[in-house]
Specification:
The complex is a heterodimer of chains A (about 300) and B (about 350).
Chain A lengths: L17 H30 L3 H9 L2 H34 L5 H8 L1 H4 L2 H12 L6 H6 L8 H26 L3 H8 L4 H12 L1 H17 L2 H7 L9 H10 L3 H42 L6 H4 L1
Helix pairs in contact in A: 1-14, 2-14, 3-8, 3-11, 3-13, 6-8, 6-12, 8-11, 8-12, 9-10, 11-14, 13-14
Chain B lengths: L2 E10 L2 E11 L4 E5 L6 H9 L11 E3 L2 E2 L5 H4 L1 E4 L11 H10 L9 H14 L15 H14 L4 E5 L7 H18 L3 E5 L2 H7 L2 E6 L2 E6 L1 H6 L4 H6 L4 E7 L3 E4 L2 E4 L9 E7 L4 E4 L9 E9 L4 E8 L4 E7 H7 L6 E6 L3 E3 L1
Parallel strand pairs in B: 3-8, 3-9, 6-7, 7-8
Antiparallel strand pairs in B: 1-2, 1-4, 4-5, 9-10, 11-12, 11-14, 12-13, 14-20, 15-19, 16-17, 16-19, 17-18
Helix pairs in contact in B: 3-4, 3-5, 4-5
Classes of the chains: A mainly alpha (about 300), B alpha+beta (about 350).
């Protein structure tokens, strides 16, 4: 066989050589295994080390259950708040051009770049017993820090960018023709928003919600600072994992961690399904715009 | 409904997109706004629609005598068809067309059955009655454009405005659709303005054509007037092709190239240099021996016989190139070939200072 014949004919002439591809894929696999697959498997292996019975006892423990409930409550509060804030912010930043807009867009990203611990400390400084607003709040009998409101505020702060960012980039690139069409058809701005703008960005919104949700459930740093670790009261699931681990109750710690990992996997599945759906819609859209090129049948034009 | 707008000016930053444009559209007519890109034609359409407000010093925009210049796009009740359709992607064809009716305030909103009936009628009108349940992404470009048209017509607009309505379609669909639009207009008699940069489209579809140049109206007229009697040099050079000569005018004649011809009747007189436009169709080609007195000899450099007309690239005796178009029938009679000698003389010409 000639040297040329040793190359598979199906290989693209502009692709990298086979050994480069194999090396890159191999390196990626090794890395992912070490950093993701093995740890994930270890969580479940450890959680079930003493059998499913022990796992079940661990997660049905009163304190762990209350941590699950608290995590769900905080998430269920933070995500809708961030959807509302995200919509408003995205509308303002995606649709309008004004002085200082760039700065605001950068500020939306701030929670992503700031350490969550710092964020937590900021809220302690603001709302803590000796903080700026702490005494005033206490006079009205409101406790923020070391209580559920603090957990919600910290989570809102940390997870704010996810919905807003998704929507901003979507509203920026989305042509406003459809909205102008709605207005020209006599729709009010309100009707246009609910019937045209929002439906057009519903997938971006859902995507943002999924990411926001995942982050809200798993948040540790900021929540850890404002929680105060009151057992059965202000411990979210990630905090509970840490406490159990520090008490050398490994099975219980990993059982709780396996719950978090399961939540993460569900989120990943939802995200993947959503992306597949979007890819399908995009393919259908481009497929039929190719159809625009075909000449109409006699029936269509008659 | 008639449209009458006066002294519309629109500036975007330092750019003057419209420069004191006035336009009058008779009720029931189909007017093309034609011009090169950046001439302000789309801006004019959007100002008439209310999608942009003209500068404050502008004159009124009268719809049947009522000034709508300060009304928003919602209140003007215009049908607007966007170049890229701007359909609501998440709504079915039926819901797209029904949108304008459903969006009305409750007092004036027709009952459900009435909406269903009217949308059905419109879909039939645009020959999409079987596709009401489809999503826009499942339609071809031509079908989408017709949905956009039906959607705009659903609100019974006072005037229908179309922005490059066929610009995104390929040639064959475009031709079919514009003939269809002409028939639809003949049936329904709506007043309509459409923007195009395609002169063939403007000439074929419109009753009247307005040529825009750098934010001003250069000429308004029937397609024939615009084509055969271009008012300005810009219009002459923008529409179709022309051979351009530097000429000299005296009291009675204009001399250009090898010819000395009478001054066109409608041309301003007065001695001096002029530019002369000679359309390829306005040149008579003869066998050299049959030449008339005005004829001048020329040689055929190239001959393109494919197409509805035969195009000749000639060289006059001093080497000046001259583009000429003759009918296939004339070519059959003359049997011209590349390299052959012919006699040519102008039948019609226009002069500009």
């Amino acid at each position: 066989m000639s040297a040329q014949g040793s190359q598979r004919p199906s290989q693209s002439p502009i692709a990298e050589p086979a050994w480069v591809r194999r090396l890159l894929v191999g390196l990626t696999l090794v890395f992912l295994s070490l950093v993701v697959f093995v740890p994930l498997a270890a969580v479940f292996a450890e959680a079930f080390r003493k059998g499913p019975g022990a796992w079940w006892r661990a997660i049905s423990d009163g304190e762990t259950l209350s941590a699950v409930r608290l995590t769900l409550f905080v998430t269920a509060s933070a995500v809708p708040l961030n959807v509302a804030f995200g919509l408003v912010a995205a509308w303002a930043l995606g649709k309008f051009r004004f002085r200082g807009r760039g700065l605001l867009v950068a500020l939306v990203d701030l929670p992503l770049s700031i350490s969550p611990v710092v964020a937590g400390l900021v809220f302690v400084l603001l709302f803590g017993a000796r903080g700026w607003f702490g005494p005033a709040l206490r006079e009205h009998g409101i406790q923020v820090i070391f209580a559920t409101p603090g957990l919600v505020i910290a989570t809102v702060f940390v997870t704010f960018p996810y919905v807003a960012r998704e929507l901003i980039s979507h509203l920026e690139e989305q042509r406003t023709d459809a909205e102008q069409a709605a207005l020209s058809l006599g729709a009010t701005g309100w009707t246009t928003f609910w019937r045209v703008t929002l439906p057009s960005c519903k997938w971006a919104l859902l995507y943002g919600v999924i990411l926001c949700n995942a982050r809200a459930m798993g948040e540790f740093g900021a929540v850890s600072v404002v929680s105060g670790h009151v057992r059965g009261e202000t411990n979210t699931l990630p905090l509970q994992v840490e406490i159990l681990y520090n008490e050398y109750d490994f099975v219980a710690a990993f059982a709780a961690a396996s719950l978090l990992a399961l939540l993460a996997l569900v989120t990943l599945l939802a995200k993947t399904l959503l992306e597949a759906h979007e890819a399908r819609t995009a393919a259908r859209g481009s497929g039929s715009s190719g159809g625009a090129g075909r000449s109409p049948t006699a029936k269509e034009l008659r | 409904m008639s449209v009458h707008a006066e002294r519309l000016t629109k500036t975007f930053g330092a750019t003057r997109a419209l420069d004191s444009v006035s336009i009058e559209v008779e009720s029931g007519s189909l007017v093309a706004l034609l011009g090169p890109s950046g001439s302000g034609k789309t801006t004019l359409l959007r100002v008439l629609a209310g999608l942009e407000f003209a500068d404050p010093a502008s004159g009124p925009i009268l719809f049947d005598g009522e000034d709508v210049a300060r009304l928003s796009v919602r209140e003007r009740r215009v049908g607007f068809v966007f170049q890229h359709y701007a359909l609501f992607k998440h709504l079915s064809v039926f819901e797209n067309v029904a949108f304008g009716l459903r969006a009305r305030p409750r007092r004036t909103r027709p009952p459900r059955a009435e909406i269903r009936r009217r949308v059905g009628e419109l879909l039939e009108r645009v020959q999409l009655q079987d596709l009401g349940e489809r999503l826009p992404s499942q339609l071809s470009g031509g079908q989408r454009q017709r949905v956009a048209l039906a959607r705009a017509l659903a609100i019974e607009p006072r005037v229908l405005l179309l922005d490059e309505p066929f610009g995104a379609l390929d040639a064959q669909v475009r031709t079919e659709l514009r003939r269809w639009l002409v028939r639809l207009h003949e049936d329904l008699h709506f007043t309509s303005l459409f923007v195009t940069h395609d002169q063939a489209e403007a000439m074929e579809v419109a009753d009247r054509v307005a040529i825009l140049e750098q934010g001003r109206v250069a000429q308004v007229g029937t397609p024939e007037e615009i084509y055969y009697a271009p008012a300005t040099e810009f219009v002459a050079s923008f529409l179709g092709e022309a051979n351009r000569f530097q000429g000299a005018m005296d009291a009675t004649h204009v001399a250009f190239g090898p010819w000395r011809m009478p001054i066109p009747e409608d041309a301003p007189r007065g001695a001096g240099p002029v530019r002369v436009y000679l359309r390829p169709q306005d040149v008579e080609v003869e066998r050299p021996e049959a030449s008339s007195p005005a004829s001048t000899p020329a040689r055929i450099v190239r001959l393109h016989a494919a197409g509805p007309a035969v195009r000749l690239e000639l060289a006059l005796s001093d080497g000046t190139p001259l583009w000429v178009e003759i009918s296939q029938r004339r070519q059959a009679a003359l049997a011209l070939r590349e390299g052959a000698r012919v006699g040519v003389h102008p039948r019609a010409w226009r002069t500009y200072r």
